[in-house]
Amino acid sequence: MKNFAELVRTLDSTNKTTLKVNALSEYFKRASDQDRVWTIAILSHRRPPRPVNTTLLRTWASELANIPLWLFEESYHIVGDLAETIALILPTNQNTSEKSLTQFLNEMLALKKESDDVKKKYVTENWSILNYYERFVFTKLITGGFRIGVSQKLMTRALSLATAVDEDVLAYKLMGKWDPSTISFEDLVLKEKASDFISKPYPFYLAYGLEGPVFNLGNIEDWSFEHKWDGIRSQTIIRDNELFIWSRGEELVTDKYPEFHVFKDEIPNGTVLDGEILPYPNNAIGTFQDLQTRIGRKTVSKALLEKTPVVLKVYDILEWKGKDLRQHSFLERRIILEDLITRLNTAHLPLQLSETVVCESWEAVAQERDRAREMHSEGLMIKRKDSKYLVGRKKGDWWKWKTDPFTIDAVLTYAMRGHGRRSNLFTDYTFGLWDENDTLVTFAKAYSGLTDAEFRKVDAWIKRNTLERFGPVRSVTPELVFEIAFEGIAPSSRHKSGYATRFPRILRWRQDKKIEDANKLEDLELLMRS
After folding, report:
1. How many angstroms separate the CA atoms of 495 and 513, rounded?
2. Domain named ATP-dependent DNA ligase family profile: which ranges (predicted)?
């Protein structure tokens, strides 16, 4: 544990990628095999289930620190991180633990079924004997919220340096479903077994947002264009007469889309398709809000299947007849894909081709992008015809050119403190629009888009204009107007306003506007229909 805590301390103290990679690589060389497996799991978001809820942790920490709970809560809101708050507020300790990371995690797994008294004894005893960074890491593991500024890609690079296993091969091996409690480092990283690859997807290739004018991309003949669909990115795999569907978040979601089970009877073995799962109510592409009714459901009822059917909109083929096609050009892969779709009876399958859009000028490309909302897409994908299918986000060959966001002017109504370096500032805002009774109704929350100087200025204003406090939330005098941008809008019975917005963020502070100039709820409906 002390080695892992020291690793976290090193990673937490630098923003330099080289130093992080070197620290991780050295750790992977020295750590035990099982600690290495658990470290890989933690840094690739395969954390053990949380055995203790945070309410109990806050209560126990305040008791151990001998301070009232309200003071702990105020400290927590200032610090912005529960594990850091606990590590700071408890009495200092210079001791260390000789137990391994694996021992601690196995104890935490066993703790989940124990009584609250047993959990309290275990947690407080460990808090009392661990030093600051060990205590911080221990609490992070208990809560499951482990974010230390290390991406899975960076971790994979370090693991490659430590093991001499190719980075792309490692990325492939670490995808999919595996249990850090049962798998060995040999099986996970070092050993290559054909059976391991039956269900495994390929690492996804991701596009960059377009930078600068589209015509800067050069010769239009070098590029292919299609719409950017707003659904769930996925890979559909048919191997050994079995079907596997993976989301981009590396979650196996086969059972959530029973409509796709027919693919294994129609699509040849050794095929991997890259595409987007889209809602398809009434034989037309729906909204992402429609799709959310199916996301997270453990079981999909017959009624839900009828209300929100889905289709797979495919735009790439990564494997054909068992052969990896990623080193082939995009144009070559598209020819194979289009030939496959032509030979399938797609009229009876929930499968559609993402059609290529033919544009003979950059002006025509811009015009097609303007049709995005009409097409129920987010904009355009622009892919170099000779591009290979790479791993992760690479700049130069794949670009996404999204439509301009919806915008609306709203009034600041509530505020909370931010997190991390903004934990001492009120930077998390709630906004309202006018209803037909001239009452401000909450419609969106946002916490990004202003400069640091603007955040400080708004923070000072909030502290002077607080009306009421509800725990960490403050209601404020309705006076400030902000332009809010968002990607999509849909009706929602779960939101007070009656609408749900997608990816809301602050575009600018409208200091030139009074609250009477802010938009009304009916304006949201007009935007939705536009």
Report:
1. 26
2. 303-435
